[in-house]
User: Which sequence fits this backbone?
């Protein structure tokens, strides 16, 4: 199946996907007198996914991770923003939506809801390629090959229906189905979160193997910080519809530049009975994205917040030589001349 | 030593009605003293929630067959009549759930619900109950407690709702708190706040706590002892330190080794336990872990392992315990 793999156009240095100024607001009923309000689910997000990497995405519930994923997949229409796939703008006379959709596939958390209950496993996997013009016979062969590849013996599993599978097996089918179109980018939105721990490890290993074998690139969204750290080359931290920090996984986890990333990673259980966590790194719940705080959105919970933080919006900028140019954070402490007492004067 | 506060012996719970019974709990023994926190750790379907519900007699009575004995604070739980059960729930034993929707009534304010519970259980006035509710809201650190008492559950964020549910569970001063994955649906940042709150309440009120979780890290943060469940049995139990540093059942060993964590090399693979948990309507004979166990020998297919002590307070159900270091 690798023979038909799509060509790498721009070379290894060209990001596979560049996302610029992505915005999505949802109109919802506000609590006051039923007036309309806007949920700023994704509110101006920029990032790049490099070829062959796994970019992890973390952040509290509601910060916009899934909305970002669905925008990339064009499952919902963005209010604004540009996608550039391997150097070509998506839509607007560049790469066609149909071709883009084939190259970007997604696996969701709910393994059951994402499979058609009336189709056998084999038919589910073969469906996409057939829609894209592959002969039925060939599509079924490809489905069998993929089943084998995801650890499900085709002679036992090809004819089964989704309800005849365990959660881990269903998620393997979903992965096989996503790979059937030979995509280059796979978006995994909480793809292992519903699995039991012992099965989760099997599926994570499978994802690593498939990535090597098919030269895939992953966008890996999860609320399990241990798993994100294990899987990711780089990690993006989102807060209330914005990017707080993005950088190499080791740097984000061990030397976070943004106070929110630091608090998030320090919230992970310690695993050491002699050094249990004694104090919660942040108080309170994430604020409502309907009326996000002004200035830096984290200022209502940040221990370093100063008055400037409630008025000035921090830019997502490189955080200096230590993290290198690939490490960016949006915090006024890292912005020379911002007026924060910890920032360099410019 | 005095009699334990909670003593469960040979608990089995099966659900009837299907083609064959679902054997959810298959011989659980458990002892808990006042002031002790016990984590029940296991994968989904291992019988954690059914065990907790058995302690409260919350499994649907008609289709459930329960055997064994459950004593809590000297009372034989299986023998309680309706009226006694009502007193028992809330006053002796109380429960918090993963989903606050299960415990909180959407049509009453939180203040009304707690005041009501207190008024019924302690025979005091509603005003007295409301005073108690306010104290409890302060206790579980809900900001602006007075105002929040008049809020409906859906008006609160996930973390606040969970605090409110804990307040409700504590409203009648129970001796034992059962917590069924109360932080699983929460963000890491909020989870740690709730875990610390539970630890503090446990210490200050001298509660005994059984905390159900599928996350070892969470168990380490809250518990004194961990019991690892698999297919309706406790396969290993011991002090948190011993379970983390010297896991002795092949399943516990496998679980710990398959954990993703920061110290792993980039690109390394996790160690895994093959296969998946057994079908409880069709449990294999012998050790239920045998089909997935890399140490299994012929005997494991036929002989059910009995509990064996490997060190003080650490008990393991495995035929090959003691031999494994050599494998
Ligand atoms: N169709 C919609 N209509 C209205 N609001 C929406 C819609 N979809 C998402 N939202 C809101 O947008 C925000 C971001 O949601 P999103 O699903 O992206 O969060 P998430 O980061 O994936 O969270 P989780 O960790 O819970 O999966 C939330 O406040 C959510 O309620
Ligand atoms: N009311 C019920 N009727 C039938 N089966 C049930 C019922 N409650 C639980 N079970 C089954 O019992 C087993 C153990 O469930 P449970 O204790 O909820 O697991 P967990 O360890 O995830 O909490 C599962 O197979 C579950 O499907
Ligand atoms: S800009 Fe201010 S409030 Fe925001 S993270 Fe930095 S210090 Fe905290
Ligand atoms: S009894 Fe046998 S199968 Fe069961 S855990 Fe021990 S070695 Fe493995
Ligand atoms: Mg989501
Ligand atoms: Mg449960």
Assistant:
């Amino acid at each position: 199946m690798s023979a038909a793999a799509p060509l790498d156009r721009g070379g290894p240095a060209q990001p596979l996907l560049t996302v610029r100024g992505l915005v999505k607001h949802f109109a919802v009923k506000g609590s006051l007198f039923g007036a309309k309000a806007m949920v700023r689910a994704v509110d101006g997000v920029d990032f790049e996914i490099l070829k062959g990497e796994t970019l992890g995405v973390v952040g509290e519930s509601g910060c916009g991770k899934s909305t970002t994923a669905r925008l990339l997949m064009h499952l919902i229409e963005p209010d604004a923003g540009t996608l550039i796939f391997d150097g070509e703008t998506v839509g607007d006379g560049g790469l066609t939506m149909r071709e883009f959709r084939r190259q970007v596939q997604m696996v969701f958390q709910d393994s059951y809801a994402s499979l058609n209950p009336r189709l056998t496993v084999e038919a589910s996997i073969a469906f996409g390629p057939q829609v894209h013009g592959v002969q039925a016979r060939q599509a079924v062969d490809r489905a069998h090959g993929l089943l084998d590849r995801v650890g499900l013996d085709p002679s036992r599993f090809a004819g089964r229906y989704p309800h005849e599978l365990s959660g881990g097996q269903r998620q393997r089918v979903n992965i096989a189905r996503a790979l059937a179109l030979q995509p280059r980018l796979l978006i995994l939105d909480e793809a292992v979160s519903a699995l039991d721990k012992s099965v989760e490890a099997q599926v994570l290993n499978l994802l690593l193997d498939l990535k090597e074998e098919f030269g895939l690139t992953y966008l890996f969204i999860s609320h399990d910080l241990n798993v994100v750290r294990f899987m990711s080359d780089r990690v993006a931290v989102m807060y209330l519809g914005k990017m707080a920090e993005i950088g190499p996984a080791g740097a984000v986890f061990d030397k976070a530049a943004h106070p929110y990333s630091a608090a998030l990673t320090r919230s992970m259980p310690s695993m050491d009975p002699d050094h249990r966590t004694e104090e919660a790194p942040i108080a309170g719940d994430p604020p409502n994205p309907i009326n996000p705080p002004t200035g830096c959105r984290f200022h209502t919970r940040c221990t370093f917040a100063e008055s400037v933080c409630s008025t000035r919006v921090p830019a997502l900028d490189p955080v200096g030589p230590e993290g290198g140019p690939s490490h960016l954070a949006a915090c006024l402490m890292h912005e020379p001349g911002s007026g924060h007492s910890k920032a360099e004067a410019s | 030593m005095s009699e334990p506060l909670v003593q469960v012996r040979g608990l089995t719970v099966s659900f009837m009605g299907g083609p064959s019974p679902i054997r959810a709990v298959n011989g659980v023994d458990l002892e808990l003293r006042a002031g002790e926190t016990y984590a029940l750790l296991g994968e989904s379907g291992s019988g954690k929630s059914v065990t907790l519900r058995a302690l409260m007699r919350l499994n649907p009575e008609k289709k459930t067959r329960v055997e064994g004995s459950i004593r809590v604070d000297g009372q034989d739980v299986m023998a309680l009549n309706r009226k006694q059960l009502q007193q028992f729930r809330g006053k002796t034993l109380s429960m918090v759930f993963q989903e606050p929707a299960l415990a909180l009534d959407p049509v009453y304010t939180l203040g009304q619900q707690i005041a009501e519970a207190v008024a019924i259980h302690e025979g005091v006035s509603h005003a007295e109950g409301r005073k108690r509710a306010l104290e409890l809201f302060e206790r579980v650190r809900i900001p602006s407690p007075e105002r929040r008492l008049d809020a409906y559950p859906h008006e609160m964020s996930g973390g606040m709702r969970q605090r409110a549910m804990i307040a409700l569970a504590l409203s009648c001063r129970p001796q034992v708190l059962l917590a069924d994955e109360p932080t699983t649906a929460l963000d890491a940042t909020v989870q740690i706040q709730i875990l610390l709150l539970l630890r503090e309440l446990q210490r200050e009120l001298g509660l005994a706590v059984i905390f159900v979780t599928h996350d070892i890290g969470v168990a380490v943060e809250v518990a004194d002892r961990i019991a690892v469940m698999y297919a309706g049995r406790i396969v290993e139990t011991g002090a948190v330190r011993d379970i983390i540093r010297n896991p002795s059942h092949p399943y516990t060993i496998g679980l710990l080794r398959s954990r993703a964590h920061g110290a792993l090399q980039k690109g390394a693979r996790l160690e895994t336990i093959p296969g998946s948990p057994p079908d409880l309507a069709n449990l294999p004979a012998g050790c239920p872990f045998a089909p997935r166990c890399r140490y299994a020998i012929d005997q494991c297919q036929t002989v059910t392992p009995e509990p064996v002590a490997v060190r003080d307070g650490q008990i393991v159900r495995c035929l090959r315990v003691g031999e494994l270091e050599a494998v």
In short: Chain A has two domains: 15-29+37-232, 264-345. Chain A has ten helices and twelve strands.
